[in-house]
Amino acid sequence: MASAILASLFHPSEVLALVQYKLAPKTKYNYSNDKARERLYYHLNMTSRSFAAVIQDLDEELKDAICLFYLVLRGLDTIEDDMTIDLETKIPYLKTFHEIIYQKGWTFTKNGPNEKDRQLLVEFDVIIEGFLKLKPAYQTIIADITKRMGNGMAHYATAGIHVNTTADYDEYCHYVAGLVGLGLSEMFSACGFESPMVAKRKDLSNSMGLFLQKTNITRDYLEDLRDNRRFWPQEIWGLYAEKMEDLVKPENCDKAKQCLSHMVWNAMGHIKDVLEYLEMIKNPSCFKFCAIPQVMAIATLNMLHTNYKIFTHENIKIRKGETVWLMKESDSIDKVAAIFRLYAREINNKSDPLDPHFVNIGVACGEIEQICVDKYPGSTAELARLQAGVMAGTSGSIITAAVVVAGAIAFKSTFA
Ligand SMILES: *[C@@H]1O[C@H](CO)[C@@H](O)[C@H](O)[C@H]1NC(C)=O
Ligand SMILES: *[C@@H]1O[C@H](CO)[C@@H](O)[C@H](O)[C@H]1NC(C)=O
Ligand SMILES: *[C@@H]1O[C@H](CO)[C@@H](O)[C@H](O)[C@H]1NC(C)=O
Ligand SMILES: *[C@@H]1O[C@H](CO)[C@@H](O)[C@H](O)[C@H]1NC(C)=O
Ligand SMILES: *[C@@H]1O[C@H](CO)[C@@H](O)[C@H](O)[C@H]1NC(C)=O
């Protein structure tokens, strides 16, 4: 915490958000009167800290359904991911997982001992029990998406993942992330919180997943390469190197940077859809749930842009304070549009005029600005407010307060 505050010291609004976050009660929900439910949320917390927080803030009607949607897909993913399970064993599980979730008492113990979420499958009967308690409409949506994703995974597991063209890239991202967007939209419409149009606009729901996935794939170049996974499309990296791994060679530094801007520009192509989707979402808890990952993605994309570090360092992240601040601010379309404008301006400002994608990225940033000015005029005032908070050193008193708080917390964590 103290180091997070120090990292955010020149971003007073982040310090404020961090301190508020630190002071907020730790556990808002107590499921101990319902043992089965408590176990579900235990597994959610164990498999995803970040999702656990946003899912628990959803309205009661959707909370369990989305928690189970996540846990079912995580179970499927844990089978797919495990390279210690041979293909002949694995494929039938992937293809029938949508039926397995209806089989009371089913568990799975074939994961290797080092598989991170092994325990989820060992206790999968708990997840199935929870799933079977959901309204049939939610069960059907979860089973349908599980079926489509499981078959997609079985296809990639058999054929291997060769992301050749940008169309292949979109297709791969559709299976692993776009489908999640489609399922969530169907739930939002099925529960009546959102209009039927949300489920109907499958193109926009798909883009929600693609923007997140492409940002992660761009960020995780080195980590994926180390594990011998290649998700960057050959149609893109082939313009800059003979082999994808050649991008890390110091002599290819300039080409690598150009390739990175190409990837950033490709991901930015989904932002227009993301904003249009978020504009449709009226329920406040659904809105935050959808908006938070998207603002994190644009912040991450900004961090990646022109950042040669992605070829030399794994696991680069935005500041903890920035994350907490974004989570706090993402509660209306005007504020989200302001955040997108803020980062689009930073992205544009960082671009190198000698880069071959300088103009493309500039146009993409200009479009975001234009869409927001036209459709979300309230974002202009929000942007001014955000910038006042973001600018370094604009508020001496907040910085002084931050130093005091950081000192107090450092003291407490050292001596308490
Ligand atoms: C949760 O509530 C139960 C009573 O329903 C109580 O005994 C228990 O201490 C509470 N747990 C926490 C962590 O607050
Ligand atoms: C959630 O998981 C973290 C560790 O991953 C643990 O410290 C925390 O106590 C867990 N919370 C609940 C409610 O299980
Ligand atoms: C990759 O796509 C290009 C067109 O973009 C095509 O010419 C080539 O044959 C494809 N290669 C493979 C291995 O599919
Ligand atoms: C992207 O990465 C973040 C941080 O590692 C993770 O929490 C999130 O689930 C990932 N999203 C997708 C769509 O892969
Ligand atoms: C724009 O970039 C320059 C350096 O290239 C930097 O000094 C300036 O602070 C940046 N402005 C914004 C608004 O990010």
From TrEMBL:
It is an enzyme of class 2 (transferase). One of its GO terms (cellular component) is endoplasmic reticulum membrane. GO terms for molecular function: squalene synthase [NAD(P)H] activity. It is found in: Membrane. The chain crosses the membrane at residues 390-411. Its main location: membrane. Belongs to the phytoene/squalene synthase family. GO terms for biological process: ergosterol biosynthetic process; farnesyl diphosphate metabolic process. The lineage of its organism: Eukaryota, Fungi, Fungi incertae sedis, Mucoromycota, Mortierellomycotina. Its cofactor is Mg(2+). Residues 1-17 form the signal peptide. InterPro entries: Isoprenoid_synthase_dom_sf, Squ/phyt_synthse, Squal_synth-like, Squalene/phytoene_synthase_CS, Trans_IPPS_euk-type, Trans_IPPS_HH. Keywords: Lipid biosynthesis, Lipid metabolism, Membrane, Signal, Steroid biosynthesis, Steroid metabolism, Sterol biosynthesis, Sterol metabolism, Transferase, Transmembrane, Transmembrane helix. This is squalene synthase. Pfam families: SQS_PSY (PF00494). Its EC number is 2.5.1.21.
